[in-house]
Write a structure and sequence with these properties.
- The protein is α+β, with helices and mostly antiparallel strands and 400 residues long.
- It has ten helices and twelve strands.
- The longest helix is centred in the first third of the chain and has 66 residues, at 2-67.
- The radius of gyration is 40 Å and the shape is elongated.
- It starts with a helix and ends in a 6-residue tail after the last strand.
């Protein structure tokens, strides 16, 4: 009996010897599993945080690129786009621009040629690039800068210089046209003066002298009118220069004064000028001098281009419920050809090529700039042989 008890004890001790390590190992394994689970959870959390951080970086990056306000591209030398903003996507005409290879996708154009030069150059590249954006020609000044990165990225910025280029062209053409317009009367005046000075017998002839002085006076007046129109156009073309006044005035009174000034011309041509303005007084806010120029030039333009008797010119002005103003000048004259209509507001443009209709060619340009300086717009429509209508739209004006 004592022997059997001894073996039970021994067996228990043996089992206990094996059980204790197993229990310890099981406990350690459980701890390891818990630790592994914690590490897994922490890793998952870190991956989530990393994704959020990447999303924040991309979002901030996108905000920064969009805040530039100009098209921007970051490209590899292969032509693949790494970064770009929406303006760049609009410029190149590619909707999914990121990771797109522009050197393969774009058709032959000035833009593609510039991008090829930019990707192949190790020094900054600059060029003016003509692009058609939504059917409208635009001019961009592009600058490409190679970056010191492992992938040799190229950063490209596009600056829209369309209006700057347009202004330069207008100024150049304006100077050339003004010089031409002034040269002709000045040459005639000098010619007649030389004749009167160098040929005493001509100067002594009263009839020739009177005729010569009359011609010189006519061309001097033409030069004076041209210079006055150029000064007016220069001033109204720069509304921020302080030349435009901002005051309340009655358009009816301005229109009546203009019609009175043109009455001799209208009577001579047996033309009728009507004024239909409602309500009266028709109160407006702006520079009454330039509005007088607008109405005078539009009415005079109708009279000059239609010298035959029976012309009817109507000046109308109305205000809608929202307070916006509409001013129209309509005549039943010969009209304007469809070919000439898009150019009538250009400086020195004359639809009449016969030379019979006199003028400086600046009247309608002054009208357009004066209207735009007051925040409005003007357009023209015409049915040759029936009627011509000039329509001015003005938004609601607030008295300042």
């Amino acid at each position: 009996m004592h022997g059997m008890i001894g073996w039970d004890v021994v067996l228990g001790l043996v089992i206990l010897a094996f059980a204790i390590p197993f229990i310890f190992l099981s406990s350690r394994m459980k701890q390891v599993r818990l630790r592994a689970l914690a590490v897994q959870q922490e890793s998952k959390y870190l991956r989530m945080m990393l994704r959020e951080l990447e999303n924040h970086v991309r979002h901030d990056q996108s905000l920064f690129l969009e805040s530039l306000g100009v098209p921007f591209l970051l490209m590899r030398p292969s032509g693949r786009v790494e970064m770009a903003n929406e303006k760049a996507a609009e410029l190149v005409g590619v909707e999914s621009i990121i990771q797109a290879n522009l050197l393969r996708m774009l058709p032959e154009s000035e833009l593609k040629t510039f991008l090829q030069q930019a990707c192949n150059s190790t020094v900054p590249v600059r060029a003016d690039v003509a692009v058609e954006l939504q059917g409208v020609p635009r001019l961009y000044r592009a600058t490409a800068t190679p970056l010191e990165t492992r992938e040799r990225h190229v950063g490209i910025v596009f600056l829209d210089v369309t209006e700057e280029h347009r202004t330069q062209v207008i100024r150049r053409d304006f100077v050339a046209n003004a010089s031409h317009e002034l040269r002709t009367p000045l040459t005639l005046i000098i010619g007649y003066l030389d004749a009167l000075i160098d040929e005493p017998e001509v100067a002594e002839d009263a009839a020739i002298r009177q005729r010569s002085l009359g011609i010189m006076k006519h061309h001097a007046d033409r030069m004076s009118r041209l210079i006055a129109d150029m000064l007016t156009l220069s001033r109204v073309d720069s509304p921020g220069s302080g030349y435009l006044k901002h005051e309340e005035f009655n358009l009816c009174r301005v229109a009546e004064d203009v019609i009175l000034r043109l009455k001799p011309m209208a009577d001579e041509q047996k033309a009728t000028v009507n004024m239909e303005i409602a309500p009266q007084p028709f109160v407006m806010w702006g520079d009454s001098f330039y509005w007088a120029q607008v109405i005078f030039n539009l009415l005079e333009n109708a009279l000059k281009n239609n010298p035959s008797p029976g012309l009817v010119v109507s000046l109308r002005a109305t205000t809608d419920e929202a307070g916006a103003r509409t001013i129209t000048v309509e005549d039943n004259g010969v009209g304007i050809s469809p070919e000439a209509l898009p150019y009538i507001f250009n400086r020195f443009y004359r639809a009449d090529t016969t030379g019979k209709i006199k003028g400086t060619g600046l009247g309608l340009a002054i009208v357009r700039h004066a209207v735009e300086a007051h925040g409005g717009s003007i357009c023209a429509s015409s049915t040759p042989g029936e009627r011509t209508v000039f329509t001015i739209h003005l938004p609601k004006q607030s008295v300042e």
